[in-house]
Write a structure and sequence with these properties.
Layout (H helix, E strand, L loop, with lengths): L1 H12 L2 H21 L9 H23 L4 H14 L3 H21 L7 H6 L4 E6 L2 E6 L8 E4 L8 E6 L2 E4 L1 H4 L5 E3 L4 E2 L4 E2 L4 E7 L5 H15 L6 H4 L1 H19 L2 H11 L2 H20 L2 E3 L4 H5 L4 E4 L1 H5 E12 L6 H11 L6 H12 L9 E5 L3 E6 L2 E6 L1 H6 L6 H12 L3 E7 L2 E12 L3 H10 L3 E5 L4 H8 L6 E3 L4 H13 L4 E5 L5 H6 L2 E5 L5 H6 L2 E3 L7 H34 L5 H20 L13
Parallel strand pairs: 11-18, 11-20, 18-19, 20-21, 21-22
Antiparallel strand pairs: 1-2, 1-3, 3-9, 4-7, 4-9, 5-6, 5-8, 10-22, 12-17, 13-14, 14-15, 15-16, 16-17
Length: 630
C-alpha cells in the first residue's frame, strides 16, 4: 500500500505549474462546450474537466485518508463529485472540480519552495589549510587540522580554522561573522575565525577550534536549525475541513431523510464545497504580492505576508541595512599650521592612490568628489595591518593606524589624542597622517545612514511595531548611528548566535520578529525570524536565499508600506471569508428548500468565486495614506 501511495504522489507532482495551466485551459473549454450543448457527442464534454481536474482531487483525498486519516477540503469536494456524477449532473461535477483546481493552482503560484542556501554557506568553508609541522609547510584538508597545529595564511586566503595569530600583521574581512563593513587590523595575540578573509599580510596562527567546532560550521548549523523551527501556516479551508465535511454530510443526510429527494442532498454537497473559501486567501496574497513587487519587494514565500501582518518587532542589522555599508570621509583635519585641511586631503589621497584597502579607496573617492585629482605617489609601500608609506611631492608620508605611527616613533599631541578619542566614541574610523616624521593630522570615516531612515522608522512605530537595532559593530558605533533614531532597543556586538537568541527570546515571549539584514552573518537570524527580509542590492546571496522577502532596490523607506499592505491583505482575506461563508449558508438553505439544483448551485458558487477574485484585485493598487509630516 505504501508503494502504491508513493507512486500516486509522484504522478500528482509530475509536470508542475505549466502542466496544471494546460489542464485547466482544456477543462475550461470542455465546460463551455458542455454548457453550450450544441455538439452531438457520445459523451458530455464536462467529463474532460471531471477527469483532468477531478481525478487529482480524488487521489489527494484518498492519499490523505489512507496515510494519516487527514481530512482536508479535498474530501468534501470528492464527495460532491461522486454524488453529482451518481445522479447524472456531469456539468456540476466538472465545474466544482475546475474551480477547486483553479484555487489550488493560485495557491501553488504564491508558495515558493524554501531555499535554505546552505549549500552556498558550505562553499565558504575552506577546503585546505597550510599546516607547518617540524618546520615543513604541508597543504592538508581543513578537516585534518588539529588543535595546537601551526597554520600559515597568505594574503587573499580564507582562514581555515579558529585560532590566535602567532606572528605577522594583517587586515581581516570579518563580514561573514560580524557584518562589519571594514576590515579589522590583526596582530600577534589577536583571535581570528574560520570563514573570514585575510586581505593583506601573511601570518601564522595556532589552531584552537577546528572541524565541527569552527565558527563557520556553527553558522551552518544555526541556519539549519533555524529553518527547521519555522512553522508554516496551514490553509484555512484545510483547517476547518473536518467540521465542514461532518456538517455537510449531516445536512445532506437529514435533507434526504426528511424530503426523500436525493437531488437536494447532492445540491447541498455541491454548494458546501469551499470553492470561494479556497480562493479567498491565495487571490488576496497574489494581488498583495503584485503590489509589493511594484514597490521593490520580491516575495519568495507565499505565506510571508500573512506572517508579516502579525509581527510586533522589526530587528534591523546596521551595516548595509540602516546604513549604506560603505565608509565615507566625514572630516579631514590638519595639525600643521602651514598645511591646510584641503592640502592634507590631497596628500593623503595621493598616498592612498595605489592602496587596495577599503579606507584608502574611500579616501581617494571622497577627494575626487570634491573635484580634485590626486597625483600618483613617487613611491608606495603597503604596510599590512597598519597602513601605507608613500612619497608625495618629495615628502615622506605615513597614513594608517596608531600602530604605524608608534612604529616610526611619532607621538600624538594631547589635543590630537582628545580629537581622535571624540571621533572614535562617535563610531568613526580614523586614519592618522605623518609628514616627514611629524604628526600632520587625520581623516575620519563613518558609515552613513540611508536617506529618510528616521522617517521610515517613525512610520513603523505609528503602525504599532517596535524597531530594534541588532548589530555586530561596537557599542560606540551602534549608538553613534542609532542614538538619534526612533529605535526601541539597540543591541551591539551581536554575533550570529546572539542575534538568534534575541529573536528566540522575543518570539517565545509572544512578540513575532521580522529580521532585516544583508550579510552572511544575518542568515541564521533571517531564517529564525517569523519573517526574514534581505537587502537584494548589497546583500549576500546567502542572506537572500535565507529570506522570505527580498528588497530588490534596497529602498528601506518602503518598509512601512509593506507592513501596512500585509495588514490590509489580512483584512481583505477576512472579508472574503465572511462573504464566502455567508454565501454558503444562503445557498445551503436554498438547496434544502429545493430552490437550487446542483447546476445552479455550482453557478452560484462560481459567482461567489468571481466576487472574491474581484475584491482581492483591489489590493493591486492599494496604498495607505500616512499622516502629513511623516
Amino acid at each position: 500500500m505504501k508503494k502504491l501511495v508513493k507512486k500516486a504522489e509522484a504522478v500528482l507532482q509530475w509536470g508542475g505549474t505549466k502542466k496544471d495551466i494546460v489542464l485547466l485551459v482544456l477543462s475550461g473549454i470542455s465546460l463551455l462546450l458542455s454548457l453550450w450543448g450544441g455538439l452531438s457527442l457520445p459523451f458530455d464534454p464536462a467529463w474532460v474537466a471531471i477527469l483532468l481536474c477531478g481525478i487529482p482531487i480524488l487521489a489527494e483525498a484518498a492519499i490523505g485518508l489512507i496515510t494519516a486519516f487527514d481530512i482536508k477540503a479535498d474530501v468534501l469536494v470528492s464527495l460532491a463529485l461522486i454524488a453529482s456524477v451518481g445522479i447524472g449532473e456531469d456539468f456540476a461535477a466538472g465545474e466544482v472540480a475546475f474551480i477547486m483546481q483553479l484555487g489550488a493552482l493560485l495557491e501553488d503560484m504564491t508558495v515558493a519552495k524554501a531555499r535554505a542556501g546552505i549549500e552556498k554557506l558550505v562553499h565558504l568553508t575552506p577546503r585546505t589549510a597550510r599546516v607547518v609541522r617540524g618546520g615543513t609547510e604541508t597543504i592538508l584538508p581543513a578537516e585534518q587540522v588539529k588543535p595546537g597545529d601551526t597554520v600559515r595564511v597568505l594574503p587573499g586566503e580564507t582562514v581555515p580554522v579558529d585560532g590566535v595569530i602567532l606572528t605577522g600583521r594583517t587586515s581581516i574581512n570579518q563580514a561573514v561573522m560580524t557584518g562589519e563593513s571594514l576590515p579589522v587590523d590583526k596582530a600577534a595575540g589577536d583571535a581570528v575565525t574560520s570563514g573570514t578573509v585575510n586581505q593583506f599580510g601573511a601570518f601564522t596562527m595556532r589552531a584552537e577550534r577546528v572541524g565541527e567546532d569552527s565558527s563557520i560550521q556553527r553558522m551552518i548549523r544555526l541556519v539549519q536549525s533555524a529553518d527547521a523551527d519555522k512553522a508554516k501556516i496551514v490553509g484555512l479551508a484545510d483547517r476547518w475541513a473536518t467540521w465542514i465535511v461532518v456538517i455537510a454530510l449531516l445536512s445532506a443526510a437529514l435533507t434526504w431523510a426528511i424530503t426523500g429527494e436525493i437531488i437536494r442532498a447532492v445540491t447541498i454537497l455541491v454548494v458546501f464545497c469551499p470553492c470561494s473559501l479556497v480562493l479567498a486567501t491565495p487571490t488576496a496574497i497574489m494581488a498583495a504580492i503584485g503590489n509589493a513587487t511594484k514597490h521593490g519587494f520580491l516575495v519568495r514565500e507565499g505565506d510571508a505576508l500573512e506572517r508579516l501582518a502579525k509581527v510586533q518587532k522589526i530587528a534591523f542589522d546596521k551595516t548595509g541595512t540602516l546604513t549604506r555599508g560603505t565608509p565615507e570621509v566625514t572630516a579631514v583635519h590638519s595639525a600643521l599650521p602651514q598645511l591646510s585641511d584641503a592640502s592634507l586631503y590631497r596628500i593623503l589621497a595621493s598616498a592612498e592612490r595605489l592602496s587596495e584597502h577599503p579606507l584608502g579607496k574611500a579616501l581617494l573617492a571622497g577627494y575626487r568628489k570634491t573635484g580634485g585629482e590626486a597625483p600618483e605617489p613617487e613611491a608606495f609601500t603597503m604596510v599590512p595591518g597598519a597602513g601605507v608609506a608613500a612619497v608625495v611631492d618629495e615628502k615622506q608620508v605615513l597614513a594608517g593606524n596608531r600602530t604605524l605611527l608608534q612604529n616610526h616613533r611619532i607621538a600624538l599631541s594631547p589635543q590630537a589624542e582628545k580629537e581622535a578619542e571624540t571621533l572614535l566614541r562617535q563610531g568613526c574610523t580614523v586614519i592618522y597622517a605623518a609628514i616627514d616624521g611629524a604628526y600632520a593630522g587625520f581623516a575620519a570615516f563613518s558609515d552613513t545612514l540611508r536617506p529618510n531612515c528616521d522617517t521610515m522608522l517613525s512610520r513603523i512605530q505609528q503602525l504599532g511595531v517596535q524597531p530594534v537595532l541588532l548589530t555586530g559593530d561596537s557599542e560606540q558605533a551602534a549608538k553613534a548611528i542609532g542614538g538619534g533614531l526612533p529605535l526601541g532597543e539597540i543591541c551591539a556586538g551581536c554575533l550570529p548566535e546572539e542575534k538568534l537568541a534575541y529573536i528566540d527570546r522575543s518570539q517565545k515571549a509572544g512578540a513575532p520578529v521580522c529580521m532585516i539584514g544583508d550579510g552572511i552573518n544575518d542568515a541564521p537570524a533571517l531564517k529564525k525570524a517569523y519573517v526574514g527580509i534581505a537587502m537584494g542590492g548589497v546583500g549576500s546571496d546567502i542572506a537572500v536565499e535565507a529570506a522570505d522577502i527580498v528588497l530588490v532596490d534596497d529602498e528601506i523607506k518602503q518598509l512601512p508600506h509593506l507592513l501596512a499592505l500585509s495588514r490590509r491583505m489580512m483584512t481583505v482575506i477576512r472579508w472574503n471569508l465572511v462573504f464566502s461563508m455567508g454565501l454558503n449558508v444562503l445557498a445551503i438553505i436554498l438547496a434544502m428548500t429545493g430552490v437550487l439544483n446542483p447546476v445552479v448551485g455550482a453557478l452560484v458558487h462560481n459567482a461567489g468565486s468571481v466576487a472574491v477574485i474581484l475584491h482581492s484585485a483591489f489590493l493591486l493598487k492599494w496604498k495607505k495614506k500616512m499622516p502629513a509630516g511623516t
